[in-house]
Amino acid sequence: MKNRKIMPLILAFSMCLAGLSGCSQDAANPNNDSGSDDKLTIGIVQHQEHPALDSAREGFLAKLKELGYDETKVDFQIKYAQGEASTDDLIAKQFVSDKVDLIYAIATPAAQSAYNATMDTEVPVIFNAVTDAVEAGIVQSNEQPGGNVTGVSDAAPLEAQIKLIREMLPEAKTIGMLYNLGEVNGKIQVDQVKAMAPDYGFEVKELGVSATTEIPTAAEQLSGDVDCFYNITDNMVVNATASVVDKANAKNLPVFAAEDGQMAQGLLASDSISYYSLGEQAGQMAYDILINGKAPADIPVETAKDTTLILNQKVAKTLGIEVPEDLLKRASLFEE
User: Fold this and answer.
1) Most distant pair of Cα atoms in the chain: their distance
2) Cβ(270)–Cβ(121) under 8 Å?
3) Which of 13, 91, 184, 247 keeps 20 to 30 A from 107, CA to CA?
4) pLDDT tens-digit readout, 241-291
């Protein structure tokens, strides 16, 4: 009786040993119907959540899906750093440890973390929402990035924004700007606007902040000395658009912006870049690297291909601003 009970167990054990590799594959890939383990893995680290950066992520995913690489072929691991650079570091290091096939880093702090984490590896990095990747120390040059990193710059068409402000506010003399002291992206834009502002009859007054909680006070302080505000693509400032608008509108001042993701917060106008389109550009880069075998070092950093003028007529009417007819003709009107 004992032998009859033991023999089936021995046979079952022997069969499992014979087919061990096949059993292991199925266990490692429970969702892979084909039994193949060649599914790509892309780690996405997003510095924080707000409409602009969300759009950069969504455009990236949409482009890859358009090219035939959706969740059935790619494991998208999406993680958010909640605005903390130290969390960007942890996420990037974890992606490297997990041996992802590519890292997509959204915003300058995330891109810097991904660059540092992959420096001694072969993991390619594509960044987005980085104003000046050279200044941020991520690439050697925009034309020839070098290393294993390339991406898409969200450098705003600053001169177009200044022209827009001049056209809409012919009597204005001073532009107020806020920026994050801890992110190089913001200071670069402020300095660029200050350099070209005199050509359009403007003076720029800026204040740097170290935390989101400082923005209402800084905006209120600036509002007594300026004729309008210009919100650059600084993540901290963009995330606090409602606070800037609140303090500006209290003094009947309009707020312009580099992108239209926060129009619902009360912005007057933006000759806007599209972060969704920037995301699509990054998605094409990822396809070229992972599928077409291109090296990141050989893919130049790209910028926005075009802009769209967005106007909020309700805000203009509330502030008593008459929009020139030629602007109305070429604008897309924001409707709440």
Assistant:
1) 103
2) no
3) 247
4) 999 999 999 999 999 998 888 899 999 999 888 899 999 999 999 999 999
